[in-house]
Write a structure and sequence with these properties.
The chain is an alpha/beta fold. The chain has helices at 28-36, 44-56, 72-78; strands spanning 5-10, 25-27, 61-66, 84-88. It has one domain. The protein has three helices and four strands. Helix 1 (28-36) packs antiparallel against helix 2 (44-56). The N and C termini lie far apart (31 Å).
Length: 99
């Protein structure tokens, strides 16, 4: 698969840190570390593992967004800050703007 980006719509805003704050972006290595340290738990683990799998197969990035938020896909596609958590193989030179 040579897709630029996969949008994974779910019922949560994205990946949350231990304080419940949205993590705007992370690498696959950082995601694995968050699983190992217990930050990512329960139903988010298979979502993250699926994201890492498709990235390993050639998708450039995956975004986990809340599909219940009105216009979430448009916010992700057409705004600088996006709408959820961006997961990439490695950190790009650009950074995702905070909301």
């Amino acid at each position: 698969m040579k897709a630029k980006r996969l949008l994974l719509l779910t019922d949560v805003d994205g990946v949350l840190d231990k304080d419940g704050q949205l993590i705007r972006s992370m690498t696959t290595a950082e995601a694995q570390g968050l699983i190992e340290d217990g930050t990512i738990t329960a139903g988010m683990i298979p979502k993250i593992e699926s994201c890492m799998d498709v990235i390993a197969e050639g998708v450039e990035a995956v975004v986990i967004i809340n599909g219940k938020v009105p216009h979430a896909v448009l916010l992700e596609l057409f705004t600088e800050h996006g709408a959820g958590t961006l997961i990439e193989r490695r950190r790009p030179k650009r950074t995702r703007a905070a909301r």
